[in-house]
Amino acid sequence: MFELRKKMNAGAERLTLAMRLFTPRRAQLDEGARLVFVCTGNICRSPYAEFIARNHGLNAISAGVNTHNGLPANDAAIAEASRRGVDMRSHRTTRWQDVPLHSGDLILALELRHALATRERAAQHQCRVVLMSYFLQPRFAFISDPYGKTQREFAVAFDLIETAVGNLAARLRQRAV
Length: 177
Fold this sequence. Notes:
Helix content is 41%, strand content 10%. By secondary structure, the protein is of the alpha/beta class. Helix 2 crosses helix 5 (151-173) and helix 3 (75-83) packs across helix 5 (151-173).
């Protein structure tokens, strides 16, 4: 059942990208604007993306669409990040609804459902919503939620996040998001 759901989610994201929904338009990221990484619980993927973006010198925060404020990162996520030289022990969750948005912020959704959940509020603040998987092109990959899964699933998700954030950082350096 899980594999079927994963394939359906990946297919929906591919279709969304093909239709050019939730993909960036060539425009500059406003000076001082932030990257806001959004996933479900803000305990695995989005905080790791935030830490990687900061390591690239980018202004970044993270949030979850289904979480409570102040929870620590998942222990398995902390362990995998630590293996990669990233210390996530200081991370505390933030609810998407509680993130103060600024005009020009770039919302990076880890999955299509996160893009859909953030779209309305982001639009009210003149923020663009983009699927993270866009920055894995031309080789599309679905960044699946590793929560509750094996260390290998965390490694795969974190590899994809590192690649996507690295590609995003390169594009921002060229000022062509």
